[in-house]
Amino acid sequence: MSKDSIILHWLNASRSQRVVWLLEELKIQYELKFYKRNAFHRAPKELAAVHPLGKSPVIEVVKEGGEKTVIAESGHIFSYLLRHYDHDNHLSPTDPDEKEELDYFLHYAEGTLEPFLVGVHVNEIAKKKAPFGTKFLMGMLVNGINQAYYTPGVASNMDFLEQTMKKQHEKGNKYFVGNKLSAADIILSFPVNSNFFANKEQADSIVGTDISKKWPHLKEWCEVIDKEPLQIQANSKVEKWESSLSQSVL
Ligand SMILES: N[C@@H](CCC(=O)N[C@@H](CS)C(=O)NCC(=O)O)C(=O)O
């Protein structure tokens, strides 16, 4: 086991949870620093002291000699941790084509898929927060934007992932890359599972259909990763830590 240790700056209800799962899989020593979203669902200003953009996840890598490196951006955090700590290729394939696929998904999750989901999410907030008397107009406006841009974007990405997973299932594989769990499944767990399939009612209404019937291979994959032991462990560790902290710390 490496002597380095990692500090993960974790924000509630955020993408940072999948980094906890990654750290558990890689068996790296880590410490969590908790940050709680404010009333506007934004990160508290303390996160900006770690990295100027004030977003989560962000990690600090503390080397054996004490020097620290700050790494931000999920895909970068994933590739850094894999490069430095996945010595036995537990989460990264050895086959060159599969390595490229993994690399693709590490970029794709935040670079292409997530912006569509964030757009839909922001529009949902806009509808809820519209001042009294403007809700109807706001609803028309954001539904129009969703129909023209975000919903087709979400749907074409889910179609793409469904086809990828269908091909994997036809080969007898349960995961996105090769025949075992990889970091691709972990990075995709947030947009595909936590954001979309785990919010089925909202997702059904956004795309106007039953998402489990439209994308059955993705649904099956969500069921597989929901049972991953170290994801379950990561979630329950965070729940315990959260409940043991006082509100003023969190
Ligand atoms: N592309 C970045 C996105 C980071 C990001 O937007 N994080 C959200 C949490 S899911 C955040 O910090 N939001 C709080 C805010 O913007 O104030 C990544 O993957 O790390």
UniProtKB/TrEMBL annotation:
MF-aspect GO terms: glutathione peroxidase activity; glutathione transferase activity
Enzyme Commission number(s): 2.5.1.18
Domain GST C-terminal: 95-250
InterPro entries assigned to the protein according to its UniProt record, in alphabetical order: Glutathione-S-Trfase_C-like, Glutathione-S-Trfase_C_sf, Glutathione_S-Trfase, Glutathione_S-Trfase_N, GST_C, Thioredoxin-like_sf
Keywords: Transferase
A GO CC annotation given for this chain: cytoplasm
Catalyzed reactions: RX + glutathione = an S-substituted glutathione + a halide anion + H(+)
Domain GST N-terminal: 3-89
Pfam family, one: GST_N
Family: Belongs to the GST superfamily.
This protein's name: glutathione transferase
